[in-house]
Design a protein that fits this description.
Translation Initiation Factor IF3, Aspartate Aminotransferase, domain 2, homodimer
Chain lengths: 461, 461
């Protein structure tokens, strides 16, 4: 089995496993207690904090361990917003943040705050100047991920941090995807991360609050972890998290070169091996191990199942693979195709042979799924019986069927003529324009319809 | 080393260790994913939920795993209060709840809610009728621990739950100390617990919300664990928690008998072996493994250090062992002596020899601490130079010095006469009345003084 979904969760690093086992015996007691077992637990906790702080590049007393990366984000955002409440209640996030950040933003809005969501380019990156323009006198906090979890695009954190600092606004960086690769550059004020992303155990997050950053802990008081992370400290897991962070960092430089070469193979070869594919994410400023592409006329869930049967674990931002039946907010913000979406995220140590096997298997898998859905094998070129003003009824049909129906009829539309696709699947809003861009047709826009929405396309070629 | 502080944290149960190791290999993936590793993780999580629900006596879909017992309490209280906000904003807690409950109550008050703290008797138990009288038409939630964490007193949960049900008020039970011994009786609505108290790993709590209980999750949205526990699931620890709960339950009946006999030895023999000791907590309705006593004229921190040197890990509710320098709120609510407080909580499997060794060592340790503090060796009986209206200046002196100073001069006070002890240590407020009760003197009351407080005592014998 080739596990290519390390951006979701990494298997436990051998060093983490060792450290966990050792500290299960040594670190189970309450570190607040005065007796031997308590003092021993405290020593382990302090040592883990120092190791993690060194890896982050902060002071140990600026770093607390939380119960997850999500919790670090929730607490960090809530505390920073409350700490600067007198300044104002404006929050800035990028449109492609992790759901924990976006849900915190929604929660802030529900509570009467305001939120600016900074757009990204088609590669998934924010533009520093655009981010800077979102800064206002009442901005309490700005958030930016170090790198995107779905497409691997690295964000210009140092540049944005400099703009924030100039404006006197603290920047919180969600470093979940990148901390295993190296410290976050720039003068950020808060940082959150998650240990199970770098091969540490689940149940451990990091929250760093730089000295001088206003911070007011929200929720009931709790004495542990400087009052910033309620609940009994999970010391064995914390020790394992710190040990594995140090271990993956030691391997990071070499692994980055290796994995970048492997993801480059996928980036370069998938579009040649599989017709009608869009590789998404920044081609240069990206994490070493993540590569993402979308396949026209493919049902993402079926694709994942077929790849699973072939022994590959990958993830997808396609609507049909999510419980909400909407495409990933990241792909939406980027304006790229979401159907048949596949994210490959390679764990350190991935063998080149596994990637080659993936590349060997993928074309057949995509073809089989397309075949089953009755997707057009090649761009339709029929022009017989040209019919302007055609309407395709794809109501009640899920992604990728509306796009397949459109592709089937485009040959019947005269060049310069339009076709309307009626659809009520959210993915159509993203995928019909993306199809137009890939097919060099014109996406005219959407119109309200009695049921669902009418997406208007003009045939150009 | 004899670890007698299992009420703080239990060492990992061998079954938990095994389960943790196995599921580190099987359960590290994201259970929301569709591929094999994800499905395997989901199966482990589901099985753990079923096992835990069976042990609690609830439906699996009523139970979520949180990152700690504290988090379960915080989320449970916040969600239940918000769910019944239309009914009102009144919260009832007992005065001896765990700090996580009391801090939630303070947070609710800071947010504009009202809180009734139900008093306890000298044994630490609430009286059901008194608890019932606290119920009001605007009561949104009532909280009661299943058993007290400091003195082991079992609370009348079933009776209180019946009164709450009659009034239509949900009862949240903090079952942290008792869940390893058995399910919580009665028709409670919510339940919180913590795995590291029963030999599970740290990082796992339980929150149970019975069907039909109004509940509105607070904080940012998160899909995991029915939306009630944000963050990536800690499946290896959850599996270990459920496995160890089942394991300790299998041993519970036999261990309860054994430990009860051992704590009974301590309850009965400490007062005979050590002069001026008050054993606290309900003598009958109590947990099997906890016994608590306080020693007059003893500095709790010094006592803990000496016991640690002799190889015993215990905890204390004395003021000088806490970061706040105030005596435990439990001892205060009970109105019992707090100085020289020792809580012994025996782990399952404790050997009788260890308890015997503790009983052999304790008298010498207490005597040594008293000696160092210059405590009166025996009740003072001097009546020469009787001086009514004596004032003892113990300002700036920490517990147990004010009580020692009082004991030193009481012999100089004529029978019927009074002495004033000036003190600014919080513990004096609790310990001077407790001393009077133990010495059969009259505690008249306190008076404001220029600095600190004057505690007035009348000599009766």
């Amino acid at each position: 089995m080739a596990y290519f979904d390390v951006a979701s969760s990494a298997p436990l690093h051998p060093v983490a496993r060792q450290a966990l086992l050792a500290s299960l015996d040594e670190g189970w007691a309450d570190p607040a207690r005065l007796y031997k077992e308590g003092r021993r637990a405290r020593l382990l906790l302090d040592a883990a904090r120092e190791a993690a702080a060194e890896a982050v590049g902060c002071r140990p007393d600026e770093l607390v361990f939380t119960s997850s990366g999500t919790r670090a984000v929730h607490s960090g955002i809530a505390g920073a917003l409350a700490g600067r409440r007198r300044t104002g209640r404006h929050l800035i996030v990028s449109a492609v943040e992790h759901s924990s950040v976006l849900h915190s933003a929604e929660s802030h809005e529900a509570d009467g705050g305001t939120v600016t969501r900074v757009a990204v380019d088609r590669g998934g990156a924010v533009e520093p100047a655009a981010y800077g323009r979102a800064l206002r006198p009442d901005t309490a906090l700005a958030c930016l991920q170090s790198a995107n979890h779905e497409v691997g695009t690295v964000q210009p954190v140092a540049e944005v941090a400099a703009l924030c600092r100039e404006a006197g606004v603290p920047l919180l960086v969600d470093a979940a995807q990148s901390l295993g690769w190296g410290p976050v550059e720039g003068e950020w004020s808060l940082l959150a991360a998650s240990a199970h992303k770098w091969g540490g155990p689940p149940g451990v997050g990091l929250l760093v609050v730089r000295k001088g950053t206003r911070f007011a802990v929200q929720g009931p008081v709790d004495e542990r972890e400087s009052g910033r992370a309620a609940g009994f400290e999970n010391i064995p897991a914390i020790v394992a998290a710190a040990a594995s962070l140090r271990a993956v960092r030691a391997e990071a430089a070499a692994e980055a070169v290796r994995l970048r070469e492997l993801t480059e193979r996928i980036r370069a070869r998938v579009p040649r091996l599989v017709p009608d594919v869009e590789v998404v994410g920044d081609p240069v400023r990206r994490l070493p191990g993540i590569v993402t592409f979308s396949c026209l006329y493919v049902d993402g869930e079926a694709l994942l199942h077929e790849l699973d049967r072939e022994g590959f674990a990958v993830s997808s931002g396609s609507s049909c693979t999510s419980s909400t039946l909407t495409p990933s907010h990241v792909l939406r913000a980027m304006g790229v195709l979401s159907e048949g979406n596949v994210r490959v995220s390679l764990p350190p140590g991935t063998a080149a042979e596994e990637v080659e096997r993936f590349l060997a298997v993928l074309p057949g898998v995509v073809a089989a799924v397309r075949d089953r859905l009755g997707a057009p094998a090649a761009p339709s070129a029929r022009t017989a019986e040209a019919a302007d003003g055609l309407v395709v009824d794809a109501l009640g049909k899920r992604c990728p069927v509306p796009v397949i129906e459109l592709a089937k009829v485009i040959g019947e539309v005269p060049v310069g003529g339009t076709v309307r696709v009626l659809a009520d699947d959210e993915a159509a809003r993203l995928d019909i324009p993306a199809w137009c861009q890939m097919r060099e047709q014109e996406y005219v826009g959407e119109e309200p319809a009695d049921t669902g929405t009418a997406y208007v396309v003009r045939r150009l070629v």
